[in-house]
What does this fold into?
Amino acid sequence: MNKVNFIYEVDNKQLTTCKIVNNLYTMINCRIVIVFDEYESMKILDKFLWSFDDISFIPHAIFSENLDEFMPIILMNDQSKLINKNIYKNYNTIINLTENFYVHFLNFKTIFEIVSKEESDKSKARKRWKEYKQRSYCEINSYKNNYILNS
It folds into this structure.
């Protein structure tokens, strides 16, 4: 069964994503894929992951064809590579920072959906929620942003 976690009412998607990644990597050693619609958004988070916390180190890389398969966290903006490279076989968690639902996300054990306070983002998240809900094998949870920030 897939576990889908919607984190809503987020002020800053990059900061929230960094906190989630930090918790998942340091506490339970998750292998994580973070997906984006745009290359620029991916580059911003790449820089933010290096600098958001002075005392933590989050090893990560932007996906490339010759990426070390042992890299614990990868960032990518081409969803087709998830299927073509069978990335889900080596990673158990995906963080969706795109605006869409992709059925191949269901190859991951855990899925995070980050939703800002903006009405357009909420509307798109509701559509994704419905997509997951239609699949009876998904356990869907929702957490208000401060749940993550305080954990």
About this structure: The helical segments are 13-28, 39-51, 80-84, 119-133, 145-149. The beta strands are 2-10, 32-36, 61-62, 73-76, 93-97, 110-116, 138-144.
